Amino acid sequence: MKQFFTPALLEWNQNENSRSMPWKGEKDPYRIWLSEIILQQTRVEQGWAYYENFIQAYPTVKDLAAAPEEAVFRLWQGLGYYARCKNMLAAARQIVDQFHGHFPNTYDAIQSLKGVGPYTAAAIASFAFNLPHAVLDGNVFRVLSRYFDIDTPIDSTTGKKQFTALAQELLPHAQSAAYNQSIMDFGAVICKPQQPACSICPLSKKCKALQLNLVGLLPVKTKKLVIKKRYFYYLVLQYKDNIYIRKRTENDIWQNLHEFILIETPQPADIPTLQAMPVFKSTFVDMSYNINGTSAAFKQQLTHQTIYSQFIFMSVTKQPEMPGYIAVPRTQLDGFAFPKTITDFLKKRELSLF
Ligand code: SF4
Prior knowledge:
The chain has about 350 residues and is of the alpha+beta class. The protein has two domains: about 1-215, Endonuclease III, domain 1 (Orthogonal Bundle), CATH 1.10.340.30; about 230-350, Nucleoside Triphosphate Pyrophosphohydrolase, CATH 3.90.79. Helix content is about 40%, strand content about 15%. The chain contains 15 helices and seven strands. It has helices spanning about 1-15, 30-40, 45-55, 60-65, 70-75, 80-100, 105-110, 120-130, 140-145, 155-170, 175-190, 210, 270-275, 280-285, 340-350, and strands spanning about 230-240, 240-245, 260, 260-265, 290-300, 305-315, 325-330. Strands 1, 2, 3, 4, 5, 6 and 7 form a seven-stranded mixed β-sheet that branches. Helix 2 (about 30-40) packs antiparallel against helix 8 (about 120-130). The longest helix has 17 residues, at about 80-100. It is elongated and about 75 Å long. The chain starts with a helix and ends in a 6-residue tail after the last helix. The model has no long low-confidence stretch (mean pLDDT about 90). Iron/sulfur cluster binds near residues 196, 198 and 215. One of its GO terms (molecular function) is metal ion binding. Its cofactor is [4Fe-4S] cluster.
């Protein structure tokens, strides 16, 4: 089985793999790293344009390291998981400071970069330097668990160890880049999560899951994803032509992005309920305000959370004291990086109210 697996996979890659991506075959570690960071938690179709924009704006790691944080965040806007962006910038600066601007060329040094885990380190080490490190991502887990009929949960420590050892054993050391690319592409286009193409699969005659009719049951995971619902009410406070915004600094989603005044509730709430909340009262203490209307509801789906947002248009006639907030002219709001839900709102904003 093992002897058949690797040659069959490489042959499929050579003769049949037509999956194209802008960074495929790339040998520049900076570009490989950028594509891998962008692709974590992001679909290829969505990440493609971002990758090209980043390469155009910052052709080298030194350019990226020298870029102002706000500009990098704005380019990242819409990709989500902003911790990735923050780590990416930190890693670029680490490469300039610790490695004199040269991308590190050993697995351990690559893994020492901020935001780079075992998978990304193996991808860069093999694709850029042809070092013998097997990648292990969702595609690889799926292909191996099905072909070898392994039901150890892939999110358990035992499972990770078992799959890592197997992936490393299957890796042909002289062809690590081609092999890693093959197995990831194979998982994406043939051994897909839903409706894998078993009828045309070059591994089918030896695939244990197919023989035992277990394809739909593998791979196994222990944890079920629990999705939390959060309700965000944004107070879009206007004084003259200015709107009040702040940068999110808490250890929560959307760190370093900007937002309006936020009131979060565990359930949907109406305006009188919001006005009765201590956080609302303390924001508007001794301040008379008008509520001019509300927006439609917006929904943003994250991996572990669903965010329901609504925007409430408010105005004051006296300059408010808003510690931690900055007053920004309405026409200049587009110069700040916001979460997708606020960007969507700004695109659709009802100009008569706001
Ligand atoms: S036969 Fe089906 S389940 Fe088995 S490796 Fe091929 S595509 Fe995956």
